[in-house]
Amino acid sequence: MFTPFSKDTQLNHQLKVITSGASGDRTLIRTDDPQYQCLPGQPRALLQSSNIYQHLEREFLTPDLDTLAPHLWLVATQSSSHISPLHEQVLKGCNITITENPELHLTWTDNRIFVKPLPRYMLSHAFWTTHLLSPTPISTQSVHGEPSSALVKAALGFMRTYYHLIQHESDLHIAKQCRLLPSSSSSSSPTEPTLEQFHAFIAGFGDIQDDRVSPRYSSSGTLRLSRLNLWSKIFLHRFQFYRTNRQYGEYFARFYAPILFFFGILTVVLGAMQVGLQADGSGNGGRHRWTALRETSLWFSVATLMCICAIGLVLLFLLVYMLLRELLFATKGVIRRRRRRTKAELARKEGFA
What we know:
The protein is an alpha/beta fold. 51% of the residues lie in helices and 8% in strands. The protein is built from 13 helices and eight strands. β6 and β7 form a beta hairpin.
């Protein structure tokens, strides 16, 4: 499997592969400072340690979202390229929040979107050719085996998201400002990468097809966290996918507005019913001195009840309409994806024939 970028376009030069002459074993070492034989930016992940792949799995695997992948059409648009550039995220009023949890990468809620920064070692050609897309085993793999296909697909899918996130000069500036990109570590190019340099590095990841990435990245792009919390109750059997409210006050505060709205409607309805009963004479022994006022109050109370019922029906209709529209849009997306997949399989079979 080829590396999506070449050695000339790599943005990190802190790693190097050394091949022993006798046995032909390939070992990954640090070139900037031999004292620290660990992944750049990850002092707990030693290069020659047996748990380096366990560390990579914690960094990139998304088991919960992979489980939800067949149902993510209920959460977001069924397109892996449905990822707005960083400048559009800012235009939408979203604050870019750094997360190291791969499950939260490109999930958003209210005015926040969570983005996982690019690890420094993922910009190294030597790292990719030895630990992820190695054509032959290296010396450290003899201890703890080769990377799983799930890890490779998750890493490719994660890197592909940055092809969509950074498309313009402004996107690159925002990424640097938010610390999503590490600065260049090359001795020949100590400055931060330019847009041309970054595009030369990331362009190969943009050509990766959905069948080469993990289910989370092949089925959708950005995900709404509130919907993940909703559907995780059904498909993951968990109360929440990720808890964003740490205080009880914050959790219950979101119920105040609908409760007050509900009690406000009840107050109007009960007030209208009381006016109608009083106008009908039930509170005055059946004697009416102002017939016109009685009739006006009676019909006004009935009209008020009808207006409240009409407003409730309209709101209910709008809710059902929006839910059905989203369901129809998602269903059409699933049908289109299945048709494209069927056409691709037929074309592949015809090619073999």
